[in-house]
Write a sequence for this structure.
């Protein structure tokens, strides 16, 4: 089976989708797939074509062409992508849909007659799902559409009802880290946030909540892992609230180091404002038996079971966040019990093997159907 | 009012366009809308945007494609109307005329096989600006080593 795996970002770039994509592609390769990745250069000075662990990675200046409004680069990129599709002859093109670069997939859709699978990774407002929109055309043109949580699937089916018979949920999944979870540390309490430092992640709400929490828990620390455009503002906020000495900014963390960081945490906080399509950090916390306090947005309620594996609160409400965190700090046995329940559930629901098997099954099903169709 | 003597120009102040091998991409720089034209549509854009008389464009179309002049004229006028509405072209009758027709003449065409004709369609993507703003942007990453099992080498960032 030849699979052209399309993702806007891939190794060595790091983010939820990049990590999931890289692990999935590696696992499919191990199952005998011939995989070719079409992706962007990201922020790096990387070669246009590179091989990693038997997978050819083809990088295109997708965003550069679009953001610079450069019609020549658009056309050149389109032609290179069409040539890749013609040369590689993929049985399946799996598009991870997250941004504007899907335009290039649309413009090369007829280069080779592959089955098209689209996985939606961003919340989609109705206005960008119409039949004449780029997302609308891509989604309607797919043979199968998957989302990474039920919430996204329901929204999508509401916006594009005709997709219902050829759509499903495949929850993200990842192998459990080899590192075994340590008992949840209680002294000093360490509260952990992980992710891109952009306004949508709501780290400012976590800092505001921490300022309140730290009055009763003076040894507590807030650890922020990640980086991004609002980092300086967050550092200033911590300073202004008088907690700068107890807030640690770790910068970016390599995926392989995440388990150890989680192991040092008492509670993992996800204060997101935007409709998180999944919430990979909450899954990683669960794998390491950490209770999660998260906002009730997007797919997070499917990753964090309120009252069982963590606590869900309303978004943009630092008092509610502080209250939920404090309730767990005051009841460490409950926090540890939620962590254990989270890990048990993660082993079953977010297993990497299950995730890979479901995509494998979907690809096989779609291509087998086409064989039958051709035979008729 | 379009006539066979009308000449137009691409609205370079508001759009960027390029044609490669029978495919045109035009971008409205004011609102981020993307347009594309293939085959006969790209030929029309190339010629019209360059200030050719519409009569000359029709001659090029009939020489290059399997299409009769009346249908070529009808499709040309419709497409030019759409391009004017989208402010990608403007009327340029007062400008210096473009050089005499350089496209294939009927006589040239007789020696070349004409291409199958398809009605030119202006494909429009109006939501590109929306999409470009959709995902929170990735910050510039510091170099961090991936420590995934089996990773060969590299740099990276965090979840």
């Amino acid at each position: 089976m030849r699979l052209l795996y399309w993702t806007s970002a891939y190794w060595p770039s790091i983010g939820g989708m990049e990590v999931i994509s890289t692990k999935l592609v590696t696992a499919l390769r191990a199952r005998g797939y011939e995989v070719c990745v079409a992706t962007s250069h990201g922020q790096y000075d990387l070669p246009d074509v590179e091989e990693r662990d038997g997978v050819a990675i083809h990088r295109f200046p997708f965003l550069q062409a679009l953001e610079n409004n450069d019609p020549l680069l658009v056309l050149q990129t389109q032609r290179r992508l069409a040539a890749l599709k013609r040369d590689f002859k993929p049985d399946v093109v799996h598009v991870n849909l997250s941004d504007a670069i899907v335009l290039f997939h649309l413009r090369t859709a007829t280069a080779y007659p592959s089955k098209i699978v689209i996985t939606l990774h961003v919340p989609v407002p109705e206005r960008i799902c119409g039949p004449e929109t780029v997302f609308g055309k891509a989604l309607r043109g797919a043979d199968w559409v998957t989302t990474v949580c039920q919430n996204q699937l329901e929204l999508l089916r509401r916006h594009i009802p005709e997709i219902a018979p050829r759509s499903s949920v495949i929850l993200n999944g990842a192998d459990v880290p080899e590192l075994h979870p340590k008992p949840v540390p209680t002294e000093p309490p360490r509260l952990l946030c992980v992710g891109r430092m952009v306004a949508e992640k709501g780290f400012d709400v976590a800092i505001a909540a921490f300022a309140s929490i730290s009055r009763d828990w003076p040894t507590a620390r807030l650890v922020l892992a990640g980086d991004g455009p609002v980092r300086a503002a967050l550092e200033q906020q911590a300073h202004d609230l008088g907690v700068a000495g107890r807030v640690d900014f770790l910068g970016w963390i390599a995926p392989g180091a995440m388990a150890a960081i989680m192991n040092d945490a008492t509670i993992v906080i996800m204060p997101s404002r935007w409709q998180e399509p999944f919430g990979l950090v909450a899954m990683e916390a669960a794998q390491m038996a950490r209770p999660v306090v998260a906002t009730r947005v997007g797919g997070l309620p499917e990753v964090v079971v309120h009252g069982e594996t963590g606590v869900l609160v309303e978004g943009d409400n630092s008092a509610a966040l502080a209250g939920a965190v404090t309730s767990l700090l005051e009841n460490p046995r409950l926090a540890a019990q939620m962590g254990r329940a989270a890990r048990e559930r993660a082993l079953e629901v977010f297993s990497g093997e299950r995730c890979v098997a479901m995509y494998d099954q979907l690809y096989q099903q779609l291509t087998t159907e086409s064989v039958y169709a051709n035979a008729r | 009012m379009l006539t066979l003597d009308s000449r137009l120009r691409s609205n370079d102040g508001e759009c960027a366009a390029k044609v490669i091998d029978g495919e045109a991409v035009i971008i409205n720089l004011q609102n981020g809308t993307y347009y594309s034209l293939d085959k006969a549509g790209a030929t029309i854009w190339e010629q019209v945007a360059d200030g050719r008389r519409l009569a000359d464009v029709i001659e090029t179309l009939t020489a290059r494609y399997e299409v009769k002049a009346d249908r070529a004229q009808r499709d040309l006028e419709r497409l030019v109307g759409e391009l004017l509405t989208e402010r990608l072209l403007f009327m340029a009758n007062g400008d210096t005329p473009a050089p005499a027709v350089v496209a294939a003449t009927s006589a040239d065409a007789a020696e070349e096989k004409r291409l199958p004709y398809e009605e030119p369609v202006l494909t429009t993507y109006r939501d590109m600006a929306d999409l470009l703003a959709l995902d929170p942007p990735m910050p510039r990453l510091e170099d961090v080593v991936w420590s995934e099992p089996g990773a060969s080498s590299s740099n990276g960032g965090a979840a």
Notes: The interface with chain A takes residues 16-18, 20-21, 23, 25-27, 29, 32, 34, 36, 124-128, 130-132, 134-142, 144-152, 154-159 of chain B (CB under 8 Å).
